[in-house]
Write a structure and sequence with these properties.
With 383 residues, this protein is an alpha/beta fold. The chain contains 14 helices and 13 strands. Helix 5 links the parallel strand 3 and strand 4. The longest helix has 24 residues. It starts with 14 loop residues before the first helix and ends with a helix. The structure holds 4'-deoxy-4'-aminopyridoxal-5'-phosphate (PMP) and glutamine (GLN).
Length: 383
């Protein structure tokens, strides 16, 4: 039998699939893969059911149904005062995952360098590899996981084409500050780079911090591919409705790639997400407050157990250092944990090129019911 193509080398099975399967096999509490254990708002679910019954079951337009494109444009205006034409500057995708992949295919030539914040979300490395690009990491280092702008500047070479930014950042929970975002924008403008920014956790930012889109900085409108998704904001990670906003040229380029990946998807989910994007501020405030309380529950509990806890500013995830408990290697720790305690977590190390920086770090998801988090903490006492 012929071997598969080289571009698949090293990709294997995603850590999320591996760890979720282990959770099922060991009947563990799954704090690994980031998905909520409660559905999103009732109105959203009802709207999708209504749309199916009303016959929204055939291919929607390639760029997405008009009502959703309008709702995305309205959302960007309402929360960030950014104006987009729904017909030329908005594209609906099959989740943020497809948006990232299509953006990379649209802008990366074989041999181009893509600078990404490390640890990086797992699909980034695959997307860069599929496009034939070369991944160049800029590491967010414990304990603060801040972006070192000098390191970012030093990573730029004549081959650099794209900066791939993610804030709020998975897995560290870092929310880039105004200074960091401005620094990124200055580097991008100075070197004429495309910036792909993954902002799927835009509404999951804690402690009263704002989310500021990279596209809002000077010189960024014409070079930024902004990406978000309904999965986290409305607790429907399985619906896979994401979107891109940007200049007409950018949206056209990403659409050209996207139309031959999936063409389109999620016909009955699209009008439902359009309705949800127009929910009142009370919805978004409650989502954030609720998740912040769970963050604190899990962070406090993990600290009481002796972990070094890096309390996140956003996302679904808290990162811990396992060394205070006498462990050194996160992969070994996460493979041991389900059998020993009945809890699943994710090792950071798989998200790094500089694996040493991630070796003692483990990520836990707190987008779960408080009693589930409590149960996990009780089980972890066996450590
Ligand atoms: N980007 C980041 C940073 C994520 O954490 C996730 C997923 N959970 C995604 C993209 C994928 O989003 P989607 O499910 O909408 O494809
Ligand atoms: N984004 C989710 C996480 O970080 C996983 C999504 C997936 O399994 N691809 O946990």
């Amino acid at each position: 039998m012929r071997e598969h193509a080289q571009r698949l080398n090293g990709l294997g099975t995603t850590i999320f699939a591996e760890m979720s399967a282990l959770a099922v096999a060991t009947n563990s509490v799954n704090l690994g893969q980031g998905f909520p254990d409660r559905d999103g708002p009732d109105s959203l679910l009802e709207d999708a059911i209504t749309a199916i019954r009303a016959g929204a079951n055939q291919y929607p337009p390639a760029r997405g149904v008009p009502a959703l494109r309008q709702a995305i444009a309205d959302h960007q205006k309402r929360f960030y005062d950014l104006s987009y034409d729904p017909d030329t500057q908005v594209l609906v995708t099959t989740g943020a995952t497809e948006a990232v992949a299509a953006a990379l295919l649209a802008y990366v030539e074989p041999g181009d360098e893509v600078i990404a914040l490390e640890p990086y979300y797992d699909s980034y490395s695959a997307g860069i590899a599929f496009a034939g690009g070369r991944r160049v990491p800029v590491t967010l280092r414990a304990p603060d996981f801040r972006l070192d702008l000098d390191e970012l500047r030093a990573a730029v070479t004549p081959r650099t084409k794209v900066l791939l930014i993610n804030s709020p950042h998975n897995p560290t929970g870092t929310v880039l500050t105004d200074d960091e975002l401005r620094g990124v924008s200055e580097v991008a403008v100075e070197h004429d780079l495309i910036v792909i920014t993954d902002e799927v956790y835009e509404h999951l930012v804690f402690d009263g911090r704002p989310h500021k889109p990279l596209a809002s900085y000077d010189g960024m409108a014409e070079r930024t591919v902004s990406i978000s998704s309904a999965g986290k904001t409305f607790s429907v990670t399985g619906w896979k409705i994401g979107w891109v906003t940007g200049s007409p040229a950018i949206v056209t380029a990403v659409t050209t790639a996207k139309q031959f990946l999936t063409f389109t998807s999620g016909a009955p989910f699209q009008p439902a997400v359009a309705g949800a994007l127009a929910l009142g501020n009370d919805y978004f405030d409650a989502l954030r407050a609720d998740l912040q309380a769970r963050r604190d529950l899990l962070c406090d509990g993990l600290a009481d157990l002796g972990f070094g806890v890096h309390r996140p500013q956003g996302t679904y995830f808290v990162t811990t250092d396992i060394r205070p408990l006498g462990h050194t290697d996160g992969i070994d720790f996460c493979r041991m944990l389900p059998e020993r305690t009945g809890v699943v977590a994710i090792p950071h190390q798989v998200f790094y090129d500089n694996t040493e920086a991630g070796r003692p770090l483990v990520r836990w998801a707190f987008c779960k019911q408080p009693q589930i988090l409590q149960e996990a903490l009780t089980r972890l006492q066996k450590l």
